[in-house]
Design brief:
Blueprint (H helix, E strand, L loop, with lengths): L1 H37 L7 E5 L3 E4 L8 E5 L2 E16 L2 E9 L3 E4 L16
Antiparallel strand pairs: 1-4, 2-3, 4-5, 5-6
Length: 122
């Protein structure tokens, strides 16, 4: 009987620890996803000029969620990072900028070069 109680106690502790670890992992993944989606909002906006209508996406890749086209003009870029490579109009670039309220665009469509001066890294 004493041995059975010890085994049950060990099992109960193992179950409690597993539940606690699962809860912490779930909270961490939710927090991580929220911080990634809000990461671009942590940087002060930099004024940029889009020189040609540019496709916008949910992430720094043409392979994820096309949102629409951003007309040429002045905008605020929160940050930039390297993503998938884009080729258009004879240019090739793997840097992307997050445009406040619009999504991600390839730096090909922003005046300033491969990596845009004044736009912080994400």
């Amino acid at each position: 009987m004493k041995h059975l109680c010890s085994v049950l106690l060990v099992c109960l502790v193992a179950i409690m620890l597993s539940a606690q670890l699962a809860g912490e992992a779930s909270a961490h993944s939710t927090t991580s996803a929220q911080s990634q989606s809000q990461q671009h909002a942590l940087h002060p906006a930099a004024s940029i000029t889009v020189w040609k209508s540019a496709p916008t996406y949910n992430c720094a890749s043409q392979g994820c969620g096309y949102l629409g086209n951003l007309p040429a003009g002045g905008y605020d870029a929160q940050c930039q990072l390297q993503g998938s490579t884009v080729a258009d109009e004879g240019y090739t670039n793997s840097w992307w900028s997050y445009i406040s309220g619009h999504g991600w665009i390839s730096n090909i469509y922003i005046k300033g070069g491969y990596k845009i001066d004044g736009v912080p890294d994400c």
